[in-house]
Amino acid sequence: VQLVESGGGSVKAGGSLTLSCSVSGDTVSSRYMAWFRQPPGQGREGVAAVDSDGRTGTADSVKGRFTISQDKAKNTLYLQMNSLKPEDTAMYYCALAASPIRVSDEFRPSAYNVWGRGTQVTVS
After folding, report:
1. Average pLDDT, the chain
2. φ, ψ for residue 103 (rounded to 5)?
3. Strand pairing category for 32-38 and 114-115
4. CA 46, CA 31: separation in Å to the nearest integer?
5. Which of 24, 88, 110, 124, CA to CA, is 20 to 30 A from 31?
6. Model confidence at 47, in pLDDT bands (50, 70, 90)?
């Protein structure tokens, strides 16, 4: 299974970006998937997740601004980010859980066993 993120870049505060995570070797809609981010010098933080039934979860820090979605035809996971703030600056990773996980673990990095290499988002 391989995950490849794209769509990062530099944007001014208040702007928007859409991140994509292309999935190969598995089906995006059949797994628990999530977006995480890691600011410089800090730990990895769960941002948004979606389970195999399409139920989504969003971290309080980005609720109302970020939206996770899937395109089954393209086998791709997305993260729409609006009203970006400087504190959103981080490396963003998508992750896939090959085995079932609990909802309470959806923002725990150790629950996911497949990771992309990340895409950098910088907000100034």
Report:
1. 96
2. -55, -35
3. unpaired
4. 16
5. 88
6. very high
